[in-house]
Amino acid sequence: MFQQSALGTSTPFGGARTTSTTSKDIEVVSPPEDSISSMAFSPAALQQNFLVAGSWDNNVRCWEVEQTGNTVPKSMQNMDGPVLDVCWTDDGTKVMMASCDKQVKCWDLASNQTIQVAQHDAPVKTCHWIKSPTYSCLMTGSWDKTLKFWDMRSANPIMTINLPERCYGAAVDYPMAVVITAGRHLIVYQLEGKPQEFNRAETNLKYQHRCIAIMRDKKNSPTGYAVGSVEGRVAVQYVNPTAPSDNFTFKCHRVNCANNSYQEIYAVNDIAFHPVHNTVATVGSDGTYSFWDKDSRIKLGSSEQKDQSITRCCFNHNGQIFAYALSYDWSKGHEHYNPQKKNSIFLLPCFEDMKPRSKSSS
C-alpha cells in the first residue's frame, strides 16, 4: 500500500503562496460521509505525507497528500460504531482506531488488515501512541471513566488508571500526558518509568473543557498545554509557571452581532500547536479557524466563516500543511442538521502564516 517513491521537496506544499489563504485551500477528494471526529497526519518516519480521518460513518480513511496538494485515496477500514479518534504509531506502519463500539483496532497499513488491541466498557474517546526510551504502548481513554495502557501483545491492559469522570479528550507528548474529563477535571500525567498522575490542575474556564493540546518550550520539551471550552475561550497553562501571569485565557470563536451589542459564543472544537513555530491554531463551531501567537498574545490571522462548523484540525509533521474538517458538530441539536451540506476536509500551506510576530519568540 505504501510503496510509492518519496515525493520531491523542491516546491513548498501547494506551490507559491498568495496573500489570501482561502484561494490556497485544497479540498481532499472522497471525504467521509458523516461528521468528521478525528484526523492525524503520518509521522516524520514516513517520507510522504499521509492523512487519516475517522468519522461517524464508522470508517477511517487514508489519503496520500502529494507535494502539489493533490490527495489520493489509499484505503479505508470499517469499525462497528462511529470512530472517535485515530493515531499513528511512531514508525508510521500502523494506525489505531478508537470507536463507540468500545474497541480500539490496529490497522496494519502494509497488509491492510486490522486486529482488535484494546477494549473498554463504554465508547473509547481517545487513543494515543506513547514512544518512550524504555517502552512503547497504546494509551486509551473512555467514557467508562478509565485510562488504559496496552502493549498490544496481550488482551489485557498493562495498566489501568481510574478517572474522576468520563474521558472527553487527551494529549500526549512524551514524557507528558494530559486528560480532560466531564466535570471540568484536568489531570496531568508523567510517563517516565511508568505512567502516573503528576497533578490535577484547575483552569479559569467556567464551562466544560472540549479539547486539549500540549505545547513545547524553545528547547522543544513539553512545558504546558492549551485547553478549549464550549464557551469560546482557551486557557494556556504551564506545568511549572515561572510567574502567575504566565497562565492566561483568551476569547475566540465569537461573533459580534447587532452593532456589537452582543456576541454569539461558539465552542472551541480543536486546538493544535505548530510543530516548528509553537504557535497555535484553534477551530470552532462558528466555522472559522484562527492562528495565534501565544507568546505575544496576538492573533496571527483567521479564516472567513465557513458554511458549517470546523470539527477538527491538525498539522503535518514538519508544519507545512494545516488540515481542517468541515462537518456538523451537533452543537445546535438535530433540528439544525442539514444532510445537504457535505462533509469536507481542506488542506492549506501554513508555514509562513504560522510564524511568530515577535523576534523574541521566533
TrEMBL record:
Residues 1-26 are annotated as: Disordered. The keyword Plastid does not apply. Keywords: Cell cycle, Cell division, Cytoplasm, Mitosis, Nucleus, Repeat, Transport, WD repeat. One of its GO terms (cellular component) is cytoplasm. It holds the Pfam family WD40. WD repeats lie at residues 29-66, 76-117, 117-160, 268-293. It comes from the Eukaryota. Its main location: cytoplasm. Residues 1-23 have a biased composition (Polar residues). InterPro entries: WD40/YVTN_repeat-like_dom_sf (IPR015943), WD40_PAC1 (IPR020472), WD40_repeat_CS (IPR019775), WD40_repeat_dom_sf (IPR036322), WD40_rpt (IPR001680). It is found in: Cytoplasm; Nucleus. GO terms for biological process: cell division. Belongs to the WD repeat rae1 family. This is Mitotic checkpoint protein and poly(A)+ RNA export protein.
